[in-house]
Structures are given as C-alpha cells and as structure tokens.
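Before going further, learn to read the protein records used in this course. The integers have meaning only within a learned vocabulary of local backbone shapes. The record below shows the convention in full.
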Amino acid sequence: MQERAAESPERTDLAEVRWRFGPFILKEMQRRLERSGESVRLGPRAFDLLLQLIKRPGEFIGKDELLSAVWAGVVVEESSVRVHMSMLRKSLGRPGEGDGCEEWISNVPQRGYRFNARVHRESLDAVEAPPPFPAPSSFAKPPARLTELVGREADVQSILSALEANRLVTIVGTGGIGKTSVAIHAAERYQLQRAAPTAFADLSSLISQDHVPGTLARSVGAAADMPDTLQAIVQCLAGQKVLLLIDNCEHVIDVLAPLINELLIALPELRILATSRESIRVTAEYVVRLPPLAVPDAEAVPLAKALKWSSVRLLVERAKAAGAGMFNEAHAPLLARISRQVDGIPLAIELVAARLGVQSVGDLARTLDDHMRLYAIANRAVSARHRTLAAALDWSIALLDETELRFFRRLSVFRGRFDVAAALGVNADMDGDVAFDALISLTNKSLIFFDTSDSVSPYRLLDTTRSYASALLEGSDEHAAMLRRHASYMLDVMKTATAELAQLAEQAWGERYAYSLDDVRFALEVCLVRQPDAGLGAALVIASMPLWFHLSQVAEYRDRVAAALTLVEQQPEPDLESATWLRTALITALLNTRGSNDDLNAVCDQALAGALALKMPVLELRARWGRCTHDMFRGEYAAALRHSQPVLALAQSGEDPAALILSHRVSAMANHFCGKFDVSRQHSEASIAISAGAGRTHANMLGPDASVAAMAVLCRTLWVRGDTANALEVAQAAVSRADSLANSLSVCSALYGACPVALWSGETELARRWVALMMEEAQRRGLLGWLRYAEWFQQGLQLATAGDRHPLVQEVSARFATYDAPRREMLVTFCPDWFDDQLIERLAQGEGLWCAAEVWRAAGWRSERRGMTDEAEGFYLRAIETARQQGAKGWELRAARSLASMRAGLNPEQQAERGRDGTDGRPMPMPESPSRPGDAPDRPQPGRGRRSGRSG
C-alpha cells in the first residue's frame, strides 16, 4: 500500500532544544545526535523517527502517524518505517544497566512504536541563533538566457505542471536535444511563479563521482568538506522552498541517486529539476522525455507554413543571428529539407544555421544532404538521433580549416568554463592573433558557447561538443602534450591566484578563481596518475592550496598532498625542496581536518629537518609554525613555547613584516598558555602594531587576518589579567573587523578569543550571539578545527543559561575524562565541577599553567563539597597565590570569592581564625561584581558548619 502524506509546515522556531536520554543528547536545531560527546551518524529519516519518538516517551505512535510526520510529501512504502527503525536501533545499540529500560524502542503489532527510556528536555529559548540557511545570493545561479527558447513552450508548461505535483522531475533526452536550455527556462518561470529561489549544480565537468556531494553543497552555499556533506546541505536548506536544478546527471547517477533520495526525505519543501540522458531511477521520480523539435511533414510547403514548424523557426532565427539575409518563398522547401535532415535536433540546427551566414541555403542543403547520406550508410548500428547529431558535428568539423580544427580539439582539455587567456594559453604555439580569430570563428559557428553574463570566464564547450572534441584530441599525436600543457597552464593560474590574495577581498577572489577547481582536479589526475610528473604535480598541489581552502575542500586537498608527496618520494632522486613544501602544506591540511596525531608529529619533524637542510627561511618559518601550532593543539604548551623562540628569532633576522606578525602571534599564544600573560600581551600588541595597514600575504594566506588573530589572543589575556572592560572592547573590535572582512577564518579566530571572554565576564547575551555565530560559520565553511572550540564554548553557554544546571553538570562530568587536555582546561574555567586529578598532574608537569589558578580553585571546591574545609582553604589560597604570581587578577578575584563564600558558611569562631588569607598578610580581595559563570555553585548555608552544599 502507498499513501501520500501531507507536507509539514515550514519551520520558524530557531531556538535550540536538547533531548537527553541515557548517554545520548539529541540537538534538535543542529540535527545532531551524540553519545558521550561523540557524534552518532544517523540518516535524516532515522533522525526524524527518533525525534518523533523521544518527544512522546512511553507512548505508542502508530505507523501511519510516523509516515505522515517523517515522510511528509513523499510517496513511500509502509515498510519504510520498519527499515529505518531497524537502522535506528542498530545505531543506538543496547541500553546500559543504568538507563532504565531493556531496549530503547519497542514495537507492538497493531499499536505502533514506543520509546522506553526517561527523556529530559532542555530549551535554550533565548539563544539568538543565526538563520539556518543562507540568503539566496549564496546559491549558484543558472547560466543566463542568451536567446529566446523556440518551440518549447509546451515542454516548459509540461515541466512546470510536473513540478507542481512532483518533487523530483527529470528531463531526459539525447545529447544536443536542448535539455539544459529547457530546464533553465522552466526554472526561471518556476521561480517567478512560486517565489522559490533556484540553485544550480552543473555536474558535466566532474571527473569523479566522489565530487558530487561537494558540488551539490557548493551550489546551495553549504560547506563542501564537512564529515557529513549531506547533513550540511540539509541544515543549509532547512525550512526553505527551493528549486535545485541539477544539470548533466547521466555519468554520476550511481552516487547522485541516493543523495537525491535523502535530500527529498529530509527537506519537504525542496523541489529538484534534473537533466540527464537517462532517468535517475529514484522513487517518486517523474520523467519528462524531451523530443526533437517538430519538423515539416513535407518539403514542398510555403514559407509561412514552414515557419509554423519549430525546427524551421529555430533554423531561421539562428541563421539571421549568424548574418544570413532574408529568406523568401523559394527558400521554404530548402529550409524544410534541412530541418528534416537534422531530425529537429536543436544543437544540430544551431551548427548548420551558423553556416548560413557564409553559405547559401541551396548549397548548404545539397552538401548537408550528401554528408548525412554517407554517414548513415557508414553508421547503421548507431541510433538515428545519435547518428544525426554526430553527422552534424562531423559536417561542421569538416568545414573547419586546420588551425580552427586544432584549436577546437585542444579546448577539450578544459573541464568547464574558460576565458580568452586560457584558450590562448593552451594554444601558446599559435600566433596570438590567429588563435584569437579561431576562438571567435568557432564561437560564431556555435561550436563554442559564449555567455555574455559571465565577465570572468564566458566560454565553454557544451558537454556533447566537448566529448566530440576530446575524441578528436585523443586520436591525434598531441594528446599527451596537450594534457601536460593544460596542467602547466593551471599551475600559472594558481600562482597568479596566490599573488592576488593580498589585493582582492575573499568574495572577489572566489568569483575569479573558484570555477577552476575541476580543471585543477583534472590537471592533478594527469600529473599524479595518467602521466606521472612529480615536479609539475607537486608544484600544482602547492600553488593551488588557497583554492582548496577557499572552497572548503581541505580533506580532499590533504589526500592530494599525500599523493603528490608519495610520488616525489618514489623518484630515484627525490627532490627535497618539493617534498618539504608538500610536508608544510600537509601540516596545514592535517591541522584543519584530523587535528593532532602521531602522523602529524612525524610530518612536522620531517618538514623542519628538510627546511633546515635546505637553509630556506620561508620553509623553516612554515615548519616551525606548524610544530608550534601542533603542540598547542594537543596541549603541549611548554614545547610550543620552546619552538616559538626560534620562530621569532628567524623572523627578526629578516625584513618580512608578515613573518614578524606571524612570529609575534605564535609567541603570544605560547606565552599565554604557559601562564606568562604579560609577555603574551606584549607580543600581541607588537603583532597588531606591525600588521596595521598590512594585507593578506603569501606568508599568512591561509590563516585569519593578522590583526584579528592577535586581538583574539589579547582579549583573553586582558581578561585573565583583570582588565575586563578592555578585554570586552578588544573582543568587540576583533569580531567587528572580522565581520567587515567577510573572511570565515577571521570570524572564527576572533570568536575563539571573544566567546570565552564574554562567558567569563557574565555577558550572557553577547555570548549567545557569538557562540551561535561561531557554530554557524564553522559549520557553513567546514572548518572542523574551529568547530571543536565552538562546541566547548557552547557547553559553557548551556551552563550559563540553564534553569537547572545539575543535569548538564552531571552529563559533562561523566565524560570529562574522555576529553583532551585543552578542552578540560577550558571547561574548568566555566564550572569548577568539571575537574579531575589529571589537571593537577598536568600542572606538576609544567602544562596547563594558563588556568592553574582555576584548577586549584576547582580542587578547593571539590574539597569543600566533601566537607574538608581545611584542605579546601589550602587550595583556595594556592589559587590566589598562583594568580598573583602570574598577574592573573581575573583568576585571583574568582578564587578570593570562593574562599570568602566558604568562610561565610563557617561559625563566627572559625571566621575569626581565618580572617586573613594566610599567604603574605595582604587583605583578601573582595568581589567587585555579581557572581560570574565559573564561580562555585551553591554553597553550604551559614551556620551549617562543614556540611557539603548542592552542586549546580
């Protein structure tokens, strides 16, 4: 049995809601399920089933109700619930002994499904989350219409009607039949009628099915390099009425079909219009088969009647555009014959019409007739339509001179769009004027498509003509040489792109170079696989680094770097310089994708050894920066401080401002985390002073804005030193500057400093905005390294805004030991209950000194809760003394408040005995403001002696 469920209403509530059960937490707005802090992978449908069940724990929900709620607007089999429920149970596993149930989900025939565990709901109603979807301006736009569509009004109306009743419509037809043109016109009409923005994804240029998810993500403005690209697309489009136009699907259907299916399941408001030479074969797909244009049923027809046939009308309009004169009655039979000869195929008509500007209609009909007849005899096994189009292409190519032919087939090396410089670049052995004339001539003959709306790269070969040109190139003696020339040209393009980083804003740079990704991919496949060339491949990998980062394809880039490095190392005499450049690139990619691990440790060592052997300061600077950052990421701050010293010395020995800026930034961070706050402040201020007026350069091209990064560290340092007002002012300035630059890395860098400052200061409203912005920006751009920090800050925000803090405190405490050291250190500054003895052990090892006072304060709070007030007082006093030694007034005030609160709970005699801090006789500082996040929770009441208070 099949049924069509009603569509769900558009979602407008953006407040975060969290559902807790057992070791799990389901984050509704983020559509994320975690088990003990680790993400659990669920498909969109399984996630929605779980959400429906946990909203009504202990209640049976019928199969029909689940179908209606979860499969809104999609025709599905009843078995879909059973299949996805089985997948959900497998993902959840078995409940533990303390989870209060034998199984998470029960199924009783005739009654439905029931969730058995206790569920706790938490709503952060005041969180000002950013919109979960981008503005339509972030959608990739379809190519502009250059000409009116002829003879396709009925087809467009059929497609629009299909889109009203179906959520997936596929236009199917042979190559050259006009699928893309019809789809674009239908999408434009649909957008006007339904006020639904259109996102355009062209798959024709892809050389691997692996690139399909990323291409779809970029088309809608989603991050293309997230661990779950599908989920990133879903989050981007949630709640929107959008038409996704996917062009040229036939060669990637195996990967595309399940993606489309999941998108339609997860996004009830989504409509998809696809073009393909075959159907996509997805449930609920509606196929519109596009026929050729209508041709006259006879040749002996008057001109007025002939022009009623759409094929003749297209032929005449395109011929006039090519410069043909007026047609009269004598021409009518010839026009009808030509239309019949090419079977009404629009691309074939375009090709022959282009000749009517320089050839009479009679000559054209005669020569075309002879060619078609000969081609049909030689290719009887080929289908009629393919035979007609191939014959039209053959005929058009046969009319080219040798220069035009060579130029045409060489252009097949481009996977997508190109400009004049690119076309001339791969034809560098031709005279420039001759090559340019060939480009214009081929465009006039409709063998090259020209898009007047594209000011960057207006030329491209249609998929059909590119395949034809590629076959011609493969059959020539210059195939291998042209592939290598294309790779060399892309290397030059990427070098130019790198040089322009300092001159262009991020968006402008992306508009100029983002389209080159598929050509870079193709060139790397040639250099690394088809025609291995270690030198060229390594150079292209290194030069293209900014492009991969800009497009959030860092994981793929990491693999390309590794492949190039392997090829270099396999050479009889490996080039040390190439290998070292690649290793420094690999460090950056690994830091952004896999974090710190043993592999990264070895790469850092090898990169530094290579840089020292080569005696190249720029490589040594990159290698040492990578080592410092790697050490800081994994919490080895003392090592980072040691490595930062030669970085600074190296930068000071040269005259490169960018190197000095970078070295001061590294020194500021290393000193901050080692508890040397005054030194850190000096380095931050030096970095800001040097970077004033400086732009993005080769030395910092992949990092955030230099001033923003320095201010991010400085605002944290200022707060710890007790200068809350200036800390907030610097944090605001960092966020404002990053926002004005429209650079995602800069935004995340600013918020890395600003979010904890807001939380430590008790500025909850500010923290809400900043944490939400950091989460959104890191997710949108696939910046996983920054996303982990946002998740830490999110935990601090949850604590600060929770009505009942106890469940969250207990939840985080239960998995605290599984967190890495940097995360534990940050969390202890948010809540003294989030503490363990490993933090004390790190202090003994000289690590984690930036929060040493907070660790001792947390130790005091633990002792106080246990009723061990003497021990607690010792820890609090140690926290105060440590903070004073570091000049950490912010931490000192916290510890002093904790000590004062504990003493206030003692009897008068005990208070008199402990009237001084017991360290150097100075009066204990008193609180200057209301309790801040991170202060000890509820304490024992006065007069209750040593009774432990309730944790919060």
In short: The chain has a mean pLDDT of 84. The longest strand covers residues 270-276. Residues 142 and 253 are 21 Å apart (CA to CA).
